[in-house]
């Protein structure tokens, strides 16, 4: 296992250096490194490491979500509340509709199989989007109108919505009946996640305050460990209560960090954010190399031109959904275009659930996995490059205002 971690870090950082020399986003280098060292290419990673791949990816995602919560200003989020809510489901609905209309013609799948494929592909990647939005918030770029805050909030809820629909369509594709009552899990999951996370944030802040009043100052490094442990517990709560009630662990983590930021002094929350920024350097490498390692490049080769066409057609549908979400806002054309670009990348969710239909023995399983893999390879770089290259041109620098 130690050799595998050495390979992950050295290959990931080496690829980052190489791709930055070529003026390309670091995330593409890490994904490429993961594909090369993964089990479907050179096979340099130990099976034990691959067996905990999802846990490693989730841990890294938790770190950046805490940092996101520590960067979010709730007052800014209120400015774009309606659009943020719409961004959490409308673009995904439009993209799924694109698959349901065109996949039967291009890929020969049935309508329900196309809906299942759409559910797999329609989730935006928080791993690609969240760190970039956090960076924009910290640089005060586009924050006056709440653009990065809106995208960050929408992307965090988007996955909750999509995963519930994925479970519903999977049941239908297997011949079962869809329980429409399961759709109630979407708002329940979001509300409970925010509530539990908020309560956790108050409790942790209370702990810090009590210690401070008794003359026992808790170091920032210790606070980081406490917050990280609490985030792990929140994610555990999600899986533990899943048979009984839906709770979004990811939203709970963000809510916890938001409350701690709201209650703490600005200097304290900044120190915590800086601490999480430092461990994100290692976590980012693990996250994207492991996502790359989950990509079976063989399925990309078998996907064909029709699959690529399907992905881009669905992205056009998605773009229309994003534009509708912006209706009635004060955003100008450039800011709306940036929102469309920021909502393109796929990676994390597709790597996690792309193979589920195949494992379930569905006839469409190989097609869904092929399109999911191709979706990661096409849209993760496209979205990352698009965000990095366009943010300075499309968003205002609010430090100057």
Report what the structure shows.
It is a single chain. The chain has 401 residues and is mainly alpha-helical. It has a single domain, classed as Na+/H+ antiporter like fold. Helices cover 77% and strands 0% of the residues. The chain contains 19 helices and no strands. It has helices at 2-21, 26-37, 47-51, 53-71, 74-79, 81-87, 90-106, 111-121, 126-138, 147-173, 185-213, 220-240, 249-263, 266-293, 297-325, 333-342, 348-353, 356-359, 365-394. Helix 8 runs antiparallel to helix 10 (147-173) and helix 15 crosses helix 19 (365-394). The longest helix is centred in the C-terminal third of the chain and has 30 residues, at 365-394. It is globular and about 65 Å long.
What secondary-structure arrangement, pairings included, does this model have?
Elements: H1 2-21, H2 26-37, H3 47-51, H4 53-71, H5 74-79, H6 81-87, H7 90-106, H8 111-121, H9 126-138, H10 147-173, H11 185-213, H12 220-240, H13 249-263, H14 266-293, H15 297-325, H16 333-342, H17 348-353, H18 356-359, H19 365-394
Helix pairs in contact: 1-2, 1-14, 2-14, 4-9, 4-12, 4-13, 4-14, 6-10, 7-8, 7-15, 8-10, 8-19, 9-10, 9-19, 10-11, 11-12, 11-13, 12-13, 12-14, 15-16, 15-19, 16-19
Quick structural gist:
Its main location: membrane. The chain is mainly α and 401 residues long.
């Amino acid at each position: 296992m130690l050799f595998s971690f050495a390979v992950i870090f050295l290959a990931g950082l080496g690829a980052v250096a190489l791709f930055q020399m070529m003026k390309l986003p670091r995330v593409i280098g890490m994904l490429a490194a993961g594909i090369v060292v993964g089990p479907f290419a050179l096979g340099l990673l130990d099976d034990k490491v691959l067996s905990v791949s999802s846990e490693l990816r989730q841990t890294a995602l938790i770190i950046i979500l805490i940092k996101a919560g520590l960067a979010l200003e709730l007052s800014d989020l209120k400015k774009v509340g309606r659009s943020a809510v719409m961004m959490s489901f409308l673009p995904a609905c439009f993209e799924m509709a694109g698959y349901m209309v065109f996949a039967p013609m291009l890929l020969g799948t049935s309508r329900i199989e196309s809906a299942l494929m759409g559910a797999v592909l329609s989730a935006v990647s928080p791993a690609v989007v969240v760190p970039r939005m956090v960076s924009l918030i910290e640089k005060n770029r586009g924050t006056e109108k709440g653009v990065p805050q809106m995208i960050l909030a929408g992307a965090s809820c988007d996955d909750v919505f999509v995963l519930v629909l994925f479970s519903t369509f999977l049941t239908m594709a297997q011949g079962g009946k869809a329980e429409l009552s399961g759709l109630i899990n979407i708002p329940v999951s979001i509300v409970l996640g925010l509530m539990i996370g908020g309560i956790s944030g108050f409790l942790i802040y209370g702990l810090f305050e009590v210690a401070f009043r008794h003359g026992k100052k808790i170091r920032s490094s210790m606070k980081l460990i406490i917050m990280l442990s609490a985030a792990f517990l929140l994610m555990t709560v999600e899986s533990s209560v899943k048979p009984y009630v839906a709770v979004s662990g990811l939203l709970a983590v963000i809510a916890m960090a938001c409350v701690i930021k709201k209650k703490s002094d600005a200097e304290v929350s900044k120190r915590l954010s800086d601490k999480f920024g430092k461990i994100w350097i290692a976590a980012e490498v693990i996250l994207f190399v492991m996502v790359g390692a989950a990509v079976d490049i063989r399925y990309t080769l078998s996907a064909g031109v029709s699959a690529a066409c399907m992905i881009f057609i669905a992205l056009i549908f998605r773009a229309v959904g994003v534009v509708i979400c912006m209706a009635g806002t004060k955003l100008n054309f450039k800011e709306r275009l940036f929102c469309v670009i920021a909502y393109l990348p796929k990676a994390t969710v597709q790597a996690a659930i792309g193979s589920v239909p195949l494992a379930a023995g569905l006839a469409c399983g190989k097609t869904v996995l092929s399109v999911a893999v191709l979706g990661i390879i096409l849209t993760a770089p496209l979205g990352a490059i698009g965000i990095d290259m366009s943010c300075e041109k499309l968003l205002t620098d609010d430090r100057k205002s």
